[in-house]
Amino acid sequence: MTRRQHDPLLIADLELPEESAREWATSSGYGAYLDVLRANGQMSTPTPTPTPSPTPTPAPTTTPTPTPTPPPTTNGATTVVAVGDIACDPGSSSWNNNNGTATACRHKYTAELAKRLAPAYVLALGDLQYEDGALAKFQQSYDPTWGQLKTLTKPVPGNHEYQTSGASGYYDYFGALAGDRSKGYYVFDLGNNWIAIAINSNCSKVGGCGAGSPQYQFVQNVLQANRGKNVLVFLHHPYWTTGNYYGQYKSSLGDLYRLFDQYGVDLSLAGHDHNYQRYAIQNADSVCNTGSVRHFVVGTGGKNVYDADVHAADEPCDEVRIDNAYGVLKLVLYSDHYEWAFVREDGTVLDQGSSSVR
């Protein structure tokens, strides 16, 4: 990681005492210095197209060239916005009455971006309200910003939500939108032959995620009943990540991801690592260009951002890593393909592409 002295994003600016120290460690020794836009795979500015694009072989690349924000897609497709790790604690020195600083607590601005993208659904990927998901904090921080999209939102809980007993603040705030509060997992129809399955990756809170657990059986039944449908799954903790949490959830989530292989799930979305990552299609054993699942990490909702390169050498199928930008993932879902764009808070597209469904 190259350290640029003029880059203003210093860890000292963030003042986030409740984040664990290892979230800021990097292999470079500089700390999570937020100054590099990375992509691994040779790239020029891609242009979305309704025909499938070939899956690239992962390789080191240059920085992707930003392009203008794409216009809203029509023709009956379903537009989805997804992001996690969103609203700062009102007690943070960077909160500033939801105005944030230049380098942290940017949730107001990612919410404004999401509104401009005019989605049919917002997939909220957990850790939605720091530091503990208390209802009063949701009402002060999340609600005036991302709460403007609440009626469109399909949430999953993160680990910070469960720092309040039973994630009660989260369930009280979202109500029926969050599903059964004893489970936190559910399914819904996205249209255009797509369904979405919300996974509660706080496995110990819901009786596990492994084979035979209630959540596993629920997911298996949904997939069995919807053979022939395109499937998107979303959760908080990433099965694949090059960031600080590399490998930490492959055991707890492994049975689910092998199930996703079996039924040909198309898309997997997660947060938890505060950066953006895109992967080639791979199977649960991380064999690239095999299986059906394309995975995204989108932990760029506003709290802070940090290093995506800590384990870059350990994930063979990662294609793009961006760790100095706040923004959201925009998905446009058609019956036979999907398009993606990672859009920075100012509307600039930093990554985009398209792929056929399985």
Automatic annotation (TrEMBL):
Compositional bias (Pro residues): 47-73
Top-level taxon of origin: Bacteria
Gene3D superfamilies recorded: 3.60.21.10
An example molecular function term from Gene Ontology annotations: alkaline phosphatase activity
InterPro entries tied to this protein: Calcineurin-like_PHP, Metallo-depent_PP-like, PAPs-like
Domain Calcineurin-like phosphoesterase: 80-276
Name of the molecule in the record: Alkaline phosphatase (Apase)
Keywords: Hydrolase, Plasmid, Signal
PANTHER family per UniProt: ACID PHOSPHATASE RELATED, PURPLE ACID PHOSPHATASE
Transmembrane segments: none
Pfam families found in the cross-reference section: Metallophos
Record-listed E.C. numbers: 3.1.3.1
Signal peptide start and end residues: none
Location of the region described as Disordered in the Swiss-Prot/TrEMBL record: 41-74
Source taxonomy: Bacteria, Pseudomonadati, Thermomicrobiota, Thermomicrobia, Thermomicrobiales
